[in-house]
């Protein structure tokens, strides 16, 4: 399960899991904030931080600033949030209990 707050190592792990048979990624697109941090000190002691390496799917498509796309998109709704529900988890449980998965 992923969403827009999924970043960095969790994005790498999602890509890794996706290479495993019978894996489904569910939720919403991740932040696309993966890769190492490089630093540059500029005049005036201003410190700039940026990603120094590209991060790609095994098929060489980019992930940075794009994010990891789910296989099944499920987004939380305002109503669900107000009710204290985890709609992504509910959808995952429903998926796992479905006849076609068994």
TrEMBL record:
The Tail specific protease domain sits at 1-74
Highest taxon in the source lineage: Bacteria
Pfam families hit by this protein? Peptidase_S41
Q: Which InterPro entries match?
A: ClpP/crotonase-like_dom_sf (IPR029045), Tail-specific_protease (IPR005151)
List GO molecular-function terms, semicolon-separated. Answer: serine-type peptidase activity
A Gene Ontology annotation in the biological process aspect, one of them, is: proteolysis
Signal peptide boundaries: none
Q: What is this protein called?
A: Tail specific protease domain-containing protein
Please tell me the species this chain comes from.
Answer: Bacteroides faecium
């Amino acid at each position: 399960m992923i969403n827009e707050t999924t970043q960095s190592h969790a994005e790498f792990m999602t890509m890794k899991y996706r290479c495993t048979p019978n894996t489904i990624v569910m939720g919403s697109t991740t932040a696309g904030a993966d890769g190492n941090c490089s630093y540059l000190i500029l005049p005036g002691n201003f410190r700039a931080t940026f990603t120094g390496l590209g991060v790609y799917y095994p098929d060489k498509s980019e992930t940075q600033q794009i994010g990891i796309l789910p296989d099944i998109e499920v987004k939380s709704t305002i109503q669900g949030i107000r009710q204290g529900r985890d709609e992504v988890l509910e959808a995952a449980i429903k998926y796992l209990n479905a006849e076609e998965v068994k």
